[in-house]
Design goal:
This protein is an alpha/beta fold. It has 10 helices and 17 strands. It is 29% helix and 22% strand. The chain is globular. The protein binds pyridoxal-5'-phosphate. Pyridoxal-5'-phosphate binds next to loops.
């Protein structure tokens, strides 16, 4: 990781160089407080997905605010979180490579020694057996790792689709003393981005029905489903109201990207503010467009291009792809005034997770983007932790 620009702390936001990824700390903290209050009011556990911010500093902040721990997607992310002092980590994903599983077991032992816990998801007999094999050499490993059986509740990614298969996997987990069957993982990722509330409701109702059928079969097989974990920022109120989910994994709510803002707002869930911004500067102006220094090396474009943040004085502009080092800005109407060379603008990234993964540091600003002050530099310590 490159050295953090420490001298920035205490400087006005105008001193932040471009392109830089900036957090509006006030907005981020309000988002977190809203989510914590929501989970508390429904008596649900909150385990935000740290793949979004990739920062052990923010994971600790989430736990101080009331989260029980964090989810991660990768073994290396789990290792970074643990090194940063996070003790309760769930790898909400399948881990298959023997060498990675050795790291999973070593990490579980480290966390256990610190009074913490590691959990992992599985969706195949082979996956359970590989994990069990990796625990063989570990001493005192009884009940070392919590294992969730992943259901594919409509996402079409990992997970088993038949409740009967989930029962077989839970039975296999129960055969291995180092593993503890902890419950079900049921995350419907695609549904998070269904634009209409009605579509999201229908998708999560189907997910809940599959979870319920699985719990019934597990009961019949004398397997206790202690916890159902899942949900993201687009649908969590629906899982929360289902009566079957006990833990929410939403991640993006804390930063709120432009893609999530395109969802029809669901009145049953708290609303979140944009808190992640890319500061950019205009470097060239032509007749009908301006060019800024934010190309797609500074923001991910898998979920659409960034939106120009309508701060006071910012002309109504639309962002177009100018390649990896440039962004093109055009007026929304023919008579929109274009910005001048040297002007700075704020962009709302299309997708927060992969945008954060492009940066070493998030610049935390207190007091707003216009007159605020840099308060904190937040290292993206799990940046590039992909293995
Ligand atoms: C398994 C799992 N849980 C939770 C989340 C969090 O979703 P979001 O960031 O959309 O809130 C994700 C994100 O992709 C995920 O893959």
């Amino acid at each position: 990781m490159k050295p953090l620009p420490d001298a920035l702390v205490g400087q006005p936001v105008s001193a932040v160089d471009t392109p830089s990824l900036v957090i509006d700390l006030d907005a981020m903290e309000r988002n977190l407080a809203r989510m914590v209050a929501f989970a508390k009011s429904r008596k649900l556990r909150l385990r935000p997905h740290a793949k979004m911010h990739k920062s052990s500093t923010l994971a600790r902040l989430q736990m101080q605010a009331g989260a029980v721990g964090v989810c991660v997607q990768k073994t290396a992310e789990a290792e970074v979180m643990a090194a940063g002092g996070v003790n309760d980590i769930y790898i909400s994903n399948e881990v298959i490579a023997p060498a990675k599983l050795q790291r999973v077991v070593a990490l579980a032992q480290t966390l256990a020694r610190r009074g913490g816990r590691l959990a992992m998801a599985v969706d195949s007999l082979e996956g359970v057996q590989r994990l069990a094999l990796a625990t063989r050499a570990a001493t005192g490993a009884d009940g070392l790792i919590d294992v969730f059986v992943e259901l594919d509740v409509g996402h079409g990614r990992c997970g088993v689709t038949a409740p009967e298969t989930a029962v077989l996997l839970a039975q296999e987990i129960a055969r291995h003393p180092a593993l503890r069957f902890a419950g079900l993982q049921a995350y419907h990722g695609r549904a998070q981005h269904f634009r209409g509330v009605a579509e999201r409701r229908a998708a999560i109702a189907a997910a809940v029905a599959l979870v319920q059928r699985t719990i019934t079969l597990m009961d019949q097989a004398s397997l206790k489903v202690e916890l159902v974990t899942g949900a993201g920022s687009g649908s969590f109120a629906l899982e929360a109201g289902s009566g079957v989910y006990g833990e929410l994994q939403a991640g993006s709510f804390m930063f709120m990207d432009a893609d999530y803002a395109r969802n029809e707002a669901d009145p049953s869930q708290p609303q979140f503010e944009h808190a992640l911004f890319l500061k950019t500067q205009v470097m060239s102006v032509c007749d009908d467009h301006a060019v800024c220094d934010a190309g797609h090396k500074s923001h991910a474009i898998d979920s659409g291009l960034p939106r120009v943040h309508p701060l006071s004085g910012t002309p109504d502009l639309e962002f177009f792809n100018g390649g990896d080092e440039h962004g093109i800005l055009r007026g929304l109407t023919p008579d929109t005034r274009l910005p001048a060379i040297g002007d700075t603008l704020w962009l709302i990234p299309g997708h927060c997770d992969p945008t954060v993964n492009l940066h070493d540091v998030l610049i935390g600003v207190r007091g707003g983007l216009e007159t605020g002050v840099v308060e904190q530099l937040i290292g993206v310590d799990a940046r590039g932790a992909l293995s």
